[in-house]
Amino acid sequence: METTTDPPELVRVYQDHRVGLLRLAYLLTGSREHSEDLVQIAFASAMPRWDRIEQPLAYLRRTIVNQAADHHRRAARERTLPVPEPVTYPPEVDETWAEIQRLSLVQRTVVILRFYEDLTLVEIAAVMARPPATVRSDLKRALEHLRKALNP
């Protein structure tokens, strides 16, 4: 990514956060290929306005979340849902992940941002452009669903 015209701060953020952003994108899309694309899109969209972005990591996360939502909408229109690449995990992790994938896109995004990215509800609200109270409700409903599904 580094070129002679990239701002030094952009290069540092790319180097420091690319892997974490790839993981976030993967968790949201279930595809390594789409993850790479989403992260590249996020940095490409940030580059021309880099000097005006106050919170670069939050901006990049929000771009990835929005692009992942667009990806899912396109997939739904095409009637093909993305299938996570097969990975072998212990059975309890497979069951949990399968249930997380069954959540609505909004609830799944809230759960991933809360428990994977370890963001606060206020930070999640900013990333998703939703009121914190709505995010709290989304998280509560998602956790209720997961509890019922995983503890019958």
TrEMBL record:
UniProt keyword DNA-binding, yes or no: yes
SUPFAM superfamilies per UniProt: Sigma2 domain of RNA polymerase sigma factors (SSF88946), Sigma3 and sigma4 domains of RNA polymerase sigma factors (SSF88659)
Domain RNA polymerase sigma-70 region: 14-77
Alphabetically ordered keywords of this record: DNA-binding, Sigma factor, Transcription, Transcription regulation
InterPro entries: RNA_pol_sigma-70-like (IPR039425), RNA_pol_sigma-70_dom (IPR014284), RNA_pol_sigma70_r2 (IPR007627), RNA_pol_sigma70_r4_t2 (IPR013249), RNA_pol_sigma_r2 (IPR013325), RNA_pol_sigma_r3/r4-like (IPR013324), WH-like_DNA-bd_sf (IPR036388)
Residue span(s) of domain RNA polymerase sigma factor 70 region 4 type: 98-146
Pfam family, one: Sigma70_r4_2
Family from the record: Belongs to the sigma-70 factor family. ECF subfamily.
Entry protein name: RNA polymerase subunit sigma-24
Organism, scientific name: Micromonospora andamanensis
